[in-house]
């Protein structure tokens, strides 16, 4: 029986539970499989293009068409969507069964679980995928006929894996997508495979992610052992069951959320596993925008949201999520403040913003987290793509000290202004999309009861200020001020006859995508004001509807009201348990506070990086020369020495252990035991008969000797019986 | 009759290869092995035991009736799958050797064909002595393949390979003979029939006796697998063996050990297995992690892949001793999958070696720039090996681990392992990603570094012949990754049979190791 609890009203309202509705297994929706199929087709075609050395832009055309098709399919699915959702079975995968007991069967198939949460994700994933592919068709031009097809094949793999991750109806197919996106990321980070730093970054990304994947794998085992299924709909049914608490009490239910968390922190680059993401900037910029900013890195948030009921079983785990998120946000922001490479700044900013999203999950606002994912996808993709356009035009130049006043240069106006829009959103400038989505999270930190959540809230506000500062540090340095630039070192025919460098301004494809994304980033504020259909008392409009309509809403079906974890989880504008900040409603207060903090950060950036750039250098010099504060800029510039720390405590010991094992294997196991023992019969043989030590002779000796030993033993058995035996 | 043909055709071809004109040798060997594969395929299609259990390919005639020795053949679904794996790998191994082996080619192909017969014989045998003879006989062709066609240190490697595995098997033989003798004592009639002896040992033997038999059999099979700490012959043998030798060694010969565990150890001495499973599982987990760490510091690509076999086979053994259907399905699937992906990796390394005459990662690197096709295959098979979902390695690794994970819980198949076994073994997943990706990062990617040398007659990138060698393996990886159900369903009957004794035994063994009195 496939039951589903999406209908059940929130328990905190006290409305009695309505019987769960059946999730329809819908064969007529088999066309939803197109979302998976189209990227696969595109992969094959791109592979053929690579094999036949196609020199045109055909791979880009194929991929964008396929992804556009997937996007249209997603939108059609959304238009056809009726709650609570549907399961579409595509293909059998693993089905093992050997009895009728609780854990005597295991089933995980290629099936799609179409509910509002997966639809929300798949729409922006395919939509942004299409746009960024179009952008990349121009961006990757220098590689036409070389790596062009390989690049788009990688993008196709990524979209396939991401779609599997988001749409799967069970945790194992999610795992497939999970590792698949990791692989696609490996492929694309290492795209410039002759550059050692790119290869190292790709490797690092895959390995660090594997640590997270280990957590996911173990979580899948535990979930299966505990609940007897890894399919979402059955899981929901089990959780709805009245006496789930008595049946599933134990260490497994407590361990599951922590393992899932490990996976989420790996994929979404949180402490302690965030270190791969900044290095991932070695990949081509469209990849950074698509995979490492907008879509893949949000998979961790998706995972937690999707398995939210399991987190609710262990309230402490959500506190950990909140703290890790909040601290990562702060840490990454401080590193981002002190970097000079604009792409890296954006990378740390992504880590920081993902931290916000986890903070949101931890303080019981899955809606806030999802909304921030949604807005962040637009404005961060936009920011990366503008960085990419600059990098492309200035021969790989990314140092913000060597670029200035781009908005005055011919052809760079669109880039500069769209970058400003992205920066405003990221900085949380009032009435931009980022402003609303960030506030949803910040306010909730003050509302939800939890250990130190208020402190966390103030830290998050501080982070918001830092965010505004580092974002506008980039924009004021690069786009504002007097026009000046220095080219990077990746020339591809941009010099004129005298060897003088000319930046080449972005053309139609790049500019069009930038404009569309800028509009998208601004329009992403609108869903906040769309009225709620699910429950008019909900805050947050359309995105809130999408989240609350799924398993990701706060509280689980059948969850008993009055649970401490749930007590603070208000979601209603007229909520009774509302906390207060400065005597105001948290949401209202937050509009003021975060708006003000953002402005302060912005003005600070304007002072140090636009009006008085010399002051910034003076300040840095002054700080570095003082003993009591000098460590701070140094540590921030060196990324708090986290990479060095991991190298010292994990990689180096393991590497030494590897050598120790190797030496042990060679000299002890093989040297002393094996070869040492082998010398004994050889010595005996030499003593008996000085043969030329040829191979065949040795073998003969051993064979004859062995047979004799056996015969002897057999004779002994016959005579005396088996030692200890009773026959 | 098909079973007999499977053995006779390669053997006859091996004789024929010695007499045909020199230029016809390769073609004849290839055709013969293709014919053998065709027979295997026909047998598989005709085979009625898929899914349900039961035996096919039956053949029997008396050899020494007074000792109950008969020449009995038969295959259940698991044997059948391993026969199919052999049938897939052998023609590829022969095809893959066309340019690599240029001297003494008659012997070379003759030995490969003899090896086919011996390996198929192991999987087909239903008589203990036939099994043992075939099991031992695989050593001789392999010995010559390494000793004649290997690299610089080949003599030492071949002798070590031979003596080490031979001594192990002798201990297994002692165990077998004891079983046969005890059975004869018991019933008064000599028999070497595997079903009879299995029936006898599993029901009539005390747990102490079973323990002795277990130890004897493990001595033989553990060396062959190889299980930590009796694995040291493998890296040496692999590094020195010619490409086809390595492929067969990793692809099929190692599976003789795990197949031995599956066919003999588990069903024959279940009581002892229940007692010793945690111990063996710990050895296999040590092997997984230990070999993985060693892989990390290797500079020789082939040695790295050889050690990775030790690590991977650890998962396979762990799955077997989970003593539940998931673990066993995973383990048998692992045997096939490891044959496909590691076999292919050895092919790829051989192809690289043929061109550059080095396997040292310090000397060679960045081959993606000059050999894109080779690099694509390399990355593909490394990913299969790492266990990327959607490819074959993932499913088997997943099933082995989840099998070990739930072994210990009171389901339909309670076992004697548990979550910690799986959790620690799962670290191997991370390590595998580390060492294999580091290898790919050095050899395939990065700036191009190649030693001076000539390609001989070979093109820079893969030739069509070499691509033909790799494509079937790649297709196998995808097929078993996307549709593992085909194999899992097919083997379920055989696995239920093997496991028949266990649920009850585990439940009853309240005090493990208590009855193993006197054992260390």
So what's the overall shape of chain B? globular
Number of helices of chain A: 27
The largest interface is: A-B, 72 and 83 residues
The Rg value of chain B, from CA coordinates, equals 22 Å
Tally of alpha and pi helices of chain B: 20
Q: Give helix % range of chain B.
A: over 70%
Folded structure, characterized:
The complex is a heterodimer of chains A (727) and B (520). By secondary structure, chain A is mainly alpha-helical. Chain A contains 27 helices and 7 strands. Chain A has helices at 34-51, 58-79, 116-139, 148-167, 171-189, 196-227, 232-240, 244-248, 251-267, 276-279, 285-294, 299-306, 308-312, 315-337, 342-362, 366-393, 413-427, 433-447, 453-478, 508-523, 541-548, 564-567, 586-611, 613-625, 627-637, 642-688, 695-720, and strands spanning 3-4, 21-22, 24-25, 86-97, 105-114, 403-404, 484-485. In chain A, helix 19 runs parallel beside helix 23. Chain B has 520 residues and is mainly alpha-helical. In chain B, strands 1-2 form a two-stranded antiparallel sheet. Chain B has 20 helices and 2 strands. In chain B, strand 1 (56-64) and strand 2 (69-75) form a beta hairpin. Chain B is globular, with a radius of gyration of 22 Å. At the A-B interface, strand 4, helix 5, helix 6, helix 26 and helix 27 of A face helix 7, helix 9, helix 12, helix 14 and helix 16 of B.
Q: Key features?
A:
heterodimer; A: 727 residues; mainly alpha; three-stranded mixed sheet; two-stranded antiparallel ribbon; 65% helix; disordered N terminus; disordered C terminus; B: 520 residues; 2 domains; two-stranded antiparallel sheet; 20 helices
Give the gist of this structure.
The complex is a heterodimer of chains A (727) and B (520). Chain A is built from 27 helices and 7 strands. By secondary structure, chain A is mostly helical.
């Amino acid at each position: 029986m496939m039951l589903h609890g999406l209908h059940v009203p929130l328990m905190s309202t006290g409305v009695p539970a309505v019987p769960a509705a059946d999730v329809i297994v819908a064969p007529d929706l088999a066309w939803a499989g197109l979302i998976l199929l189209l990227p696969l087709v595109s992969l094959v075609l791109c592979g053929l293009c690579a094999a036949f050395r196609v020199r045109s832009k055909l791979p880009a055309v194929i991929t964008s068409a396929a992804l556009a098709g997937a996007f249209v399919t997603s939108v059609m699915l959304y238009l056809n969507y009726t709650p609570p959702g549907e399961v579409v079975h595509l293909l059998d995968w693993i089905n093992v069964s050997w009895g009728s007991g609780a854990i005597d069967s295991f089933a995980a198939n290629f099936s799609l679980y179409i509910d509002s949460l997966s639809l929300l994700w798949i729409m922006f994933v395919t939509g942004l995928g299409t746009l960024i592919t179009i952008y990349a068709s121009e961006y990757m031009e220098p590689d036409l006929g070389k790596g062009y097809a390989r690049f788009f094949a990688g993008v196709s793999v990524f979209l396939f894996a991401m779609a599997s991750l988001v749409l799967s109806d069970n945790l194992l197919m999610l795992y497939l997508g999970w590792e698949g996106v990791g692989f696609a990321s490996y492929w694309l980070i290492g795209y410039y495979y002759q550059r050692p730093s790119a290869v190292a970054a790709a490797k690092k990304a895959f390995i660090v992610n594997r640590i997270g994947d280990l957590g996911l794998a173990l979580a899948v085992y535990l979930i299966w052992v505990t609940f007897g299924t890894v399919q979402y709909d059955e899981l929901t049914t089990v959780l709805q069951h009245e006496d789930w608490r008595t049946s599933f009490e134990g260490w497994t239910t407590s361990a599951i959320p922590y393992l899932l968390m490990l996976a989420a922190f790996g994929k979404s680059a949180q402490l302690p596993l965030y270190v791969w993401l900044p290095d991932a900037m070695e990949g081509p910029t469209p990849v950074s925008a698509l995979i490492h900013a907008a879509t893949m890195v949000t998979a961790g948030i998706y995972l937690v949201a999707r398995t939210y009921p399991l987190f609710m079983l262990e309230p402490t785990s959500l506190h950990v999520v909140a703290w890790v998120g909040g601290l990562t946000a702060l840490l990454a922001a401080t590193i981002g403040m002190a970097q000079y490479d604009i792409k890296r700044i954006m990378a740390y900013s992504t880590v920081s913003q993902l931290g916000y999203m986890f903070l949101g999950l931890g303080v019981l606002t899955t809606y806030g987290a999802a909304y921030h994912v949604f807005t962040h996808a637009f404005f961060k993709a936009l920011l990366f793509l503008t960085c990419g356009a600059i990098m492309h035009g200035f021969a790989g130049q990314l140092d913000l000290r060597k670029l200035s006043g781009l908005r005055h240069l011919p052809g760079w106006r669109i880039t500069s202004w769209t970058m400003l829009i992205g920066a405003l959103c990221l900085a949380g400038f009032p009435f931009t999309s980022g402003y609303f989505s960030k506030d949803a999270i910040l306010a909730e930190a003050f509302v939800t009861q939890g250990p130190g959540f208020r402190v966390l809230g103030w830290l998050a506000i501080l982070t918001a200020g830092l965010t505004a500062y580092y974002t506008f540090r980039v924009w004021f340095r690069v786009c504002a001020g007097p026009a000046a630039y220095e080219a990077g070192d990746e020339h591809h025919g941009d010099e004129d006859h005298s060897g003088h460098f000319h930046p080449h301004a972005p053309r139609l494809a790049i500019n069009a995508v930038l404009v569309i994304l800028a509009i998208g980033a601004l329009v992403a504020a609108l869903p906040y004001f769309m009225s709620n259909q699910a429950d008019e008392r909900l805050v947050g409009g359309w995105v809130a509807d999408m989240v609350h309509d799924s398993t990701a809403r706060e509280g689980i079906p059948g969850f008993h009201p009055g649970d401490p974890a749930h007590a603070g989880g208000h979601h209603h504008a007229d909520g009774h348990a509302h906390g207060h900040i400065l005597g105001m409603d948290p949401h209202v207060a937050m509009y003021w506070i975060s708006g003000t903090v953002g402005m302060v950060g912005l003005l600070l950036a304007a002072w140090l990086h636009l009006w008085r750039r010399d002051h910034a250098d003076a300040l840095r010099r002054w700080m570095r020369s003082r003993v009591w504060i000098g460590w701070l800029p140094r540590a921030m510039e060196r990324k708090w020495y986290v990479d060095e720390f991991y190298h010292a405590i994990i990689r180096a010991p393991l590497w030494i252990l590897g050598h120790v094992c190797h030496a042990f294997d060679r000299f002890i196991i093989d040297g002393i035991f094996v070869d040492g023992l082998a010398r004994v019969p050889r010595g005996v043989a030499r003593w008996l008969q000085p043969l030329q030590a040829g191979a065949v002779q040795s073998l003969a000796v051993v064979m004859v000797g062995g047979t004799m030993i056996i015969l002897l033993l057999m004779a002994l058995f016959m005579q005396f019986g088996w030692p200890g035996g009773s026959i | 009759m098909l079973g007999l043909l499977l053995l006779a055709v390669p053997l006859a071809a091996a004789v024929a290869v010695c007499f045909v004109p020199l230029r016809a040798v390769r073609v004849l060997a290839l055709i013969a092995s293709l014919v053998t594969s065709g027979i295997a395929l026909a047998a598989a299609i005709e085979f009625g035991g898929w899914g349900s259990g039961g035996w096919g390919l039956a053949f029997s005639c008396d050899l020494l009736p007074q000792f109950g020795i008969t020449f009995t053949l038969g295959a259940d679904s698991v044997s059948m799958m391993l026969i199919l794996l052999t049938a897939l790998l052998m023609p590829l191994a022969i095809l893959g050797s066309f340019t690599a082996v240029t001297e003494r080619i008659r012997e070379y192909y003759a030995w490969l064909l003899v090896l086919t017969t011996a390996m198929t014989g192991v999987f087909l045998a239903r008589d203990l002595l036939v099994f043992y003879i075939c099991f031992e006989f695989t050593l001789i062709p392999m010995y010559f393949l390494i000793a004649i066609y290997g690299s610089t240190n080949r003599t030492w490697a071949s002798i070590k390979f031979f003596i080490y595995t031979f001594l192990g098997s002798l201990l297994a033989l002692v165990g077998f003979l004891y079983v046969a003798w005890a059975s004869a004592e018991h019933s008064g009639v000599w028999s070497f029939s595997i079903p009879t002896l299995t029936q006898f040992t599993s029901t009539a033997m005390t747990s102490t006796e079973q323990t002795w038999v277990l130890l004897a059999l493990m001595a033989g099979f553990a060396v062959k697998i190889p299980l930590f700490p009796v694995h040291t012959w493998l890296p040496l043998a692999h590094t020195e063996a010619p490409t086809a030798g390595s492929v067969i060694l990793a692809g099929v010969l190692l599976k003789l050990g795990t197949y031995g565990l599956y066919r003999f150890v588990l069903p024959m001495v279940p009581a002892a297995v229940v007692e010793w499973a945690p111990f063996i599982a710990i050895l296999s987990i040590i092997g997984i992690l230990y070999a993985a760490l060693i892989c990390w510091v290797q500079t020789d690509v082939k040695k790295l892949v050889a050690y990775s076999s030790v690590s991977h086979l650890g998962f396979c053994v762990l799955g077997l001793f989970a003593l539940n259907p998931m673990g066993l399905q995973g383990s048998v699937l692992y045997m096939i999958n490891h044959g496909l992906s590691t076999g292919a990796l050895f092919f790829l390394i051989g192809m690289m070696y043929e061109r550059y005459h080095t396997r040292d990662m310090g000397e060679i690197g960045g081959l993606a720039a000059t050999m894109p096709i080779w690099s694509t295959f390399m990355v593909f098979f490394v990913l299969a090996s790492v266990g990327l979902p959607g490819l074959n390695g993932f499913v088997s690794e997943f099933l082995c681990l989840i099998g070990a994970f739930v072994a210990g819980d009171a389901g339909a198949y309670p076992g004697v392992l548990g979550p910690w076994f799986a959790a620690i073994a799962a670290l191997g997943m991370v390590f595998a990603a580390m060492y294999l990706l580091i290898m790919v990062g050095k050899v395939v990617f990065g700036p191009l570094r190649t030693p001076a040398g000539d390609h001989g007659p070979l093109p820079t990138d893969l030739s069509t012949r070499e691509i033909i060698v790799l494509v079937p393996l790649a297709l196998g990886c995808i097929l078993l990754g996307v549709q593992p159900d085909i194999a899992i369903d097919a083997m379920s009957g055989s696995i239920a049979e093997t496991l028949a004794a266990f649920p009850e035994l585990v439940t009853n063994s309240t005090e493990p190791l208590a009855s193993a009195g006197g054992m260390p």
